[in-house]
DNA sequence: ACGGCAGGATTGTCTAGTCAATGCGGTCAA
DNA sequence: TTGACCGCATTGACTAGACAATCCTGCCGT
């Protein structure tokens, strides 16, 4: 029992369980066999079993609910549509066909808002074309659905633009921050979206109550006025298990047709 | 040394090292202290040290190069621009300001192509408005940059549309598969992009040679003709450590202005 | 009927060790 | 000089155990 050159036990355990999850013998929400059970079944030490399960946890397939056991993870993403701010119209009809499951219907929505003035983080300063250390206003929001944190949205504005405006008040802005900016003379007509895929920082894990093995989409949106001035940078952190990012595109500048 | 209620040692070790990575005392490419070294430094068993490092590996911050040691991971993402197929024009000028680092300049590009006819996977069938099990043509590509696998792109087409066309040949299509489809009378004018963020499957890990702790963006693009017929589903797997997804948007249907 | 408490099942943390696998550098022979 | 080989440092896999933490369940007393 001490020679290698085979696939490690932990890997085999992970593979077997993953297979069972894939083929449906274990459905989302089901409990996995207990560690003791697997220990017996495979004839290995508990530490090895745990390492096998650890693999699945880090793949986001399993969550542990101590001390009840390990469970197959459930995943129900919600649509995140960056375009909505410029084009609030509904999806193309074809969309419904495969997106009906992702809706916020009947769920209780809520958000916390916190406004402050900070030195622009390098990433933000770069996009707002400011020097490092210049001050910006930031509206930090955490959005909840049914009491669970759903995503983080931090919007940064050059301080001189929004000083004393409604944006500085830590309340819900009914007509939207973009409209307020427009009223101030900074209507955004273009935006650049960047989406990074990575593992969350510990801080994000805490703020969003993420379980291990949950990657996040890190969405940075920079809004520009007609004159090409960057007036807003919105950073959104989207837990991968709770979101689908969606865009619609149309062909432009047809060369033929 | 046997009472808990404190933060676990493994967590502390991970936190300390993460901190050092964040503040620059450990730069990308640097070697971490060896396990033996950390064992001594923290006065814990080697297993505990390993668990601490494991955390960072799963966060994508550290890679191990056995038996040389553990190293701080390097990350250089490349821009992925789904819009390019409909709008090959360059970025907005502002883009350069913070995207210059992400370019393929001077790197050797290559791809493998493999064409086959398969039963449509459920996910694809749904989007192509086919019944489960109907046949589709699929072009599977793995794209390499400097010999390293960079992303996977599988494009599915309803079999009856592309039968005997150039799309069925496992070669590079110089004018692009979309042009071939257009020549066949199925010009795409709209597309729907969906982007899921998740951990890779073991198969994806193998195909893309991903190191642990690398999440992927799972990009599904459905292309529609003028009549609203779905004629193409492209599934792209984007390793998070090697890509930024980018979109440009413009305000439409101005209500005011 | 109800509240609290004890015990049990289960996962979480950790120790102290063994042996395997691997890449690198240095030694030594051709 | 070159190539083969050996040893070493390091990480990888695993064992067998101990004790901690946590939630649930069922019992008991009021």
List the helices and strands and how they pair.
The structure is a homodimer of 257-residue chains.
Chain A: H1 9-22, H2 35-42, H3 46-58, E1 62-65, E2 69-72, E3 78-80, H4 93-99, E4 109-119, H5 122-128, E5 135-145, E6 148-158, H6 159-162, H7 177-183, E7 188-198, H8 202-208, E8 216-225, E9 230-239, E10 243-250
Parallel strand pairs in A: 3-10
Antiparallel strand pairs in A: 1-2, 4-5, 5-6, 6-9, 7-8, 8-9
Helix pairs in contact in A: 1-3, 2-3
The structure holds a DNA duplex (30 and 30 nucleotides).
Characterize the structure shown.
2 copies of one chain form a homodimer. With 257 residues, chain A is an alpha+beta fold. Chain A folds into 2 domains: 9-72, Arc Repressor Mutant, subunit A; 78-245, Chorismate lyase-like (Chorismate lyase), CATH 3.40.1410.10. Helix content of chain A is 26%, strand content 32%. Chain A has helices at residues 9-22, 35-42, 46-58, 93-99, 122-128, 159-162, 177-183, 202-208, and strands at 62-65, 69-72, 78-80, 109-119, 135-145, 148-158, 188-198, 216-225, 230-239, 243-250. The first copy, chain A, has a 6-stranded antiparallel sheet with strand order 4-5-6-9-8-7. A two-stranded antiparallel sheet of chain A has the order 1-2. In chain A, strands 3-10 form a two-stranded parallel ribbon. In chain A, a hairpin with a 4-residue loop joins β8 and β9 (230-239). In chain A, α2 crosses α3 (46-58). The longest helix of chain A has 14 residues, at 9-22. Chain A is elongated and about 70 Å long. Chains A and B meet through α3, α4, β7, β8 and β10 of A and α3, α4, α5, β7 and β8 of B.
